[in-house]
Amino acid sequence: MNVHDSERLSGLLEGAGYVRAPEGSDGDADVVVFNTCAVRENADNRLYGNLGRLAPMKTKRPGMQIAVGGCLAQKDRDTIVKRAPWVDVVFGTHNIGKLPVLLERARVQEEAQVEIAESLEAFPSTLPTRRESAYAAWVSISVGCNNTCTFCIVPALRGKEKDRRTGDILAEIEALVGEGVSEITLLGQNVNAYGSDIGDREAFSKLLRACGKIDGLERVRFTSPHPRDFTDDVIAAMAETPNVMPQLHMPMQSGSDTVLKAMRRSYRQERYLGIIDKVRAAIPHAAITTDIIVGFPGETEEDFEQTLHAVREARFAQAFTFQYSKRPGTPAATMEGQIPKEVVQARYLRLAALQEEISWDENKKQVGRTLELMVAEGEGRKDGATHRLSGRAPDNRLVHFTKPDVEVRPGDVVTVEITYAAPHHLLAEGATSDVRRTRAGDAWEKRNAAEAAKPAGVMLGLPTIGAPEPLPVAAGAGSGCGCD
C-alpha cells in the first residue's frame, strides 16, 4: 500500500510539472520526498538518518525542498520539523493529494508546512498515478482498518475502513488492461473485509469473479486478507475464477491461542489451519505465505512451540517473520511481560531455520513441473552474470530461467520446466519451450522508449516494488501486521 501511495505521489508531482531525477542523484534534486511507514521501529531510525544525510546537501542548495509524508508523518506530525527543521513539508496519510500545493506554499512563504488531515480527503485511486510497472499494477479497493489488534498502529494512522465502489474498481482495472497491464493486485488493509460498508459479506468474492470476466486480464492477486473474514465463498471464487492466481498471503501472527487472544486476533490456531486445509483442498497447487510475530509480550516457550507446530502443519511456501516491535500508542506497548531481546532473537532464529527447511522442501516439489512465467523486471539480481531472465509463476514463486534465443520482454509469458529448487527461488535450466509476446510486453517496450526521451528532474523516494526478502535477519524488530 505504501508503494501504491508512492506511485500516487509521483503522479501528482509529474502532473504538476516535475520530472524525475536520475537514480541516486537525490543530493542534486530540487525535491526529495520520503513516503514513510510506522509499523516497525526501524522506519523511524531510517527516516531521521536519511534526513540527517540530506541536511548538508540542502545547506549547499538553498532552493532544495524536502517533504515527509505517510504513516510516520501522520504519527509524529510537528515532531519531524522539530527534529529536522530543514524539512519543508509534512503531510499525512489522508491528504497526499495536497503535496504539490504544500511544496509551492512552503516555497512562497519560506517556512515549513505541516498539514495532517484527520480523515480521508479523496480516495487515493482518484489521484494521478505514475505506475512503476507497465505490465503489473496495484488497485486499491479499500483504505483503513476496523480491527483493533493490540500490536498495530495502522488503524490509528489510516483510519476506519472505507470501501471503494465496485464499479470504480472495475473501471480502473479495465482502463489499466487497455493500457497493456495484464496483472493486477487488489489492495486493502484487510482486503477480504471489502463490503463491510454496505453489509455485503460476499462482496469480495463477487469482485474476484467480476475480475474474471475482464478480457485481457491474465492474473489477479490480492493482499492482505484477514482470517476472520476468509469465508468459503472467497475460496470458491479463487478456485473457480481462472485468472485468480493460486496464491494466498494470509497473516497468522502466532500459533498460540493465548497470544492470539492477547493480540485481539479474532481466530485461533484450529480456525486458521482449517482455512489452509480448505484452500488446499480446492486449489491443490496453491502457495500459501504468512506473517508471524516473534516475542509478543507474555509469549512463553509453550506459546512459541505452538507457533512452531502451526508452521509445521501449514507448510508455508514462505513466512515473513518479524521480531515484535513496541510501537508507542498501541495497547501492546504497555503490556506486562515484555520479552528480553536475547530471548526474542533466539526464538526468531529457531523459527527462521524451521521455515527455511519447509520452504526448501516445498520448492523441491516444484521440480519437474512445467510452468507459465510472467517475465519480470529487476527481480533477478544476478541475471546479467548468469545469462538468465526471471519471472513469476502463477503461485508467485520466483523462477530464474535460461535466456532464450528470441527477444523476451518484461510482461511477456514463457513456458519452462523447473529443474532445481533453492529455498527462495527456482531454476529452469533447460530451453524455454514457448515464448508468448503480449500486450503487456508491448506496453513495457513503449514505456521504455518514452522514458529514454525524458529529461531528468525530481528525485522521488520510492520503495522497491516486489515482495520483501523472506525471514530478514532484523536487529530491530517488527510487527508483521501485514499492513506495510
Walk me through what this model shows.
The chain is 35% helix and 18% strand. By secondary structure, the protein is of the alpha/beta class. The strands form five sheets. It has a seven-stranded mixed sheet. α5 links the parallel β3 and β4. α8 packs parallel to α9 and α12 packs parallel to α13.
Count of discrete alpha- or pi-helical segments spanning 4 or more residues: 15
Under CATH, the homologous superfamily of the largest domain reads: tm_1862 like domain
Shape: globular
Give average pLDDT, whole number: 89
- Corresponding CATH architecture of the largest domain: Alpha-Beta Horseshoe
Features of the shown structure:
five-stranded parallel beta sheet, OB fold (Dihydrolipoamide Acetyltransferase, E2P), 3 domains, single chain, alpha/beta, pyruvate-formate lyase- activating enzyme, Rossmann fold, 15 helices, 484 residues
Describe how the helices and strands are arranged.
Blueprint: H1 2-15, E1 31-36, H2 41-60, E2 65-70, H3 71-76, H4 78-83, E3 89-91, H5 99-109, E4 113-115, E5 136-140, E6 142-143, H6 154-158, E7 162-163, H7 166-178, E8 183-187, H8 203-211, E9 219-223, H9 232-240, E10 247-249, H10 257-262, H11 269-282, E11 287-294, H12 301-314, E12 318-323, H13 341-364, E13 370-375, H14 383-386, E14 388-392, E15 398-402, E16 413-417, E17 420-421, E18 426-428, E19 434-436, H15 439-452, E20 459-461
Parallel strand pairs: 1-2, 1-20, 2-3, 3-4, 5-8, 8-9, 10-11, 11-12, 15-18
Antiparallel strand pairs: 6-7, 13-14, 13-16, 14-15, 16-19, 17-18
Helix pairs in contact: 8-9, 12-13
Subunit structure: Monomer.
Enzyme class: transferase
Domain MTTase N-terminal: 1-108
